[in-house]
Each structure stands twice: as C-alpha cells, then as structure tokens.
C-alpha cells in the first residue's frame, strides 16, 4: 500500500491535517486517514494519482471530475439521510504537479459481517430517490442501454485480443432491444462490495466510492454486485427473496426486476 509523499504531507499540513496513514489504493485514487492538527475527529483523504487515467474498462478517466462528483453526490445523499462519508472539502490542484484532494469525515468499521438484508433496504432507499443531475461521469454521455451495449462490446474486444478461439461479438442491433429496459432510471452505486461498505454490528454506516454511479434500472445494481465475490455480493439475490428490498421498493417505487428480453 502506498505511503503518503512529503509533498502531500506538507500540503495537507497547510490545510491543518497531519498524521497521514494509508488506508487503501485503487486504480485512480489512494486513500489516507489523517487528523486535524488542533484535535477533533479523524478525516479520510482521497488523492487522485493522476489528473487523467486509462484502463481497458475505462479508457478515459478524468479523476478531477470523479472527485467533484463524489463531493456533490455525498453532500446530496447526506442531506437525504443516507449513510455516506460527509464531505469536508474539495481541494483542487493549482499546478500539474499537485494532486486533487477530497477530504471527508472518516467512518470507522468494526469488521463485522455485513447484514445484507439491511443493505437491501438501504439500496431500496437509494433507488427511490429523485434522480440528481447532472448525468454521472460513468455514463460517458450515453443513455443506459447504449452505454451497457458499448461496454459489453468493449470488453468482448479485449477478450478476443487475448484468446484466438473467442467468437465474434453479437451485433449492437441484437443487444440494444435487450438492454432497452435498463433506461428506466434510478441512482445506482454500481460498486457494492464489502470494501466499499463501512459497517457497525452488520449495519451500514457508510457506502463509499461513487465513481461508478449511474442513472439506470436498479436491476443493474444487483446484476453487477452478484458477479463480485464475498458476502456483499453473493447475498444480494437472497436479499430480494427475503423481501428486504421489495418491502421498501414495492409501494409505488421502481422494482429491481428486468422484464423478459425480446425473443
């Protein structure tokens, strides 16, 4: 895990934050815990590794835009009473050599097993919120059906590059009618896994990292989470069977069930 740099330590000290400890590192960001030099509750510091990034799944990543979105969404969701890290400050770099920084309240985690029944209730609350504007960064300026089809074909090409026996991709004309129901919109998190959930006695204290947020049908939330290992993923479908999600979402709210695709 990456440690902080002297330049980052100095810059945060100027902002009144000291004692940086590394917490984690992803593709685009590193996260640290710090404390105010005058005392008080600890904070989480999210640092953009580079101004722009690229990988096979996301070829055009603007880390500044993602931090701005994280700041905006967590403020909005906090105002709606959803458990997220409350943002403190967004500090944008003044030179190319400096990283952008998002400072938020630090949320403790007791290491308990996530109660996915309660997580299902939380997701139902999230999906019932009015759609916030603007369209999330992950949408790539596309409506959800076109975005999903484009991502399928992008990943298909990457696999074909690695395997000689990979078949040709299905045509967009075949996929778009199947993906059309995904256009019914709710705010989705789209990276629900234990690493992005801060827990206390199984309950959700905070849902972290909104870089993958999207406006689309809630079925995408459960479909993507169900592909990830661990209790925050594999138990999401039993959540639906236990009616945790549907109990909150069923009375006039959006359902996380896809219509049958066209034949």
How far apart the termini lie comes to: 49 Å
Work out the helicity level: 25-40%
Poorly predicted parts:
252-263
Number of strands: 11
Largest sheet: spatial strand order: 1-2-3-7-6
Mean pLDDT: 86
Please give the radius of gyration in angstroms: 20 Å
Beta-strand fraction estimate: 15-25%
The computed structural class is alpha+beta
| Series of H and E elements | HEEEEEHEEHHHEEEEHHHH
**Distinct helical segment count:** 9
Shape: globular
Biggest β-sheet, characterized?
5 strands, antiparallel
Describe the structure.
This protein has 263 residues and is an alpha+beta fold. Helices cover 33% and strands 20% of the residues. It has nine helices and eleven strands. The strands form four sheets. A five-stranded antiparallel beta sheet has the order 1-2-3-7-6, with helices on both faces. A two-stranded antiparallel ribbon has the order 4-5. Strand 4 and strand 5 form a beta hairpin. Helix 4 packs across helix 5. The longest helix is centred in the middle third of the chain and has 19 residues. The N and C termini lie far apart (49 Å).
Question: What is this structure, in a nutshell?
Answer:
With 263 residues, the chain is α+β, with helices and mostly antiparallel strands.
Topology of this protein?
Layout (H helix, E strand, L loop, with lengths): L5 H9 L2 E9 L3 E8 L6 E6 L3 E2 L7 E2 H17 L7 E5 L9 E5 L10 H12 L16 H19 L9 H8 L6 E3 L8 E4 L2 E5 L6 E3 L2 H7 L5 H4 L1 H6 L2 H6 L14
Antiparallel strand pairs: 1-2, 2-3, 3-7, 4-5, 6-7, 8-11, 9-10
Helix pairs in contact: 4-5
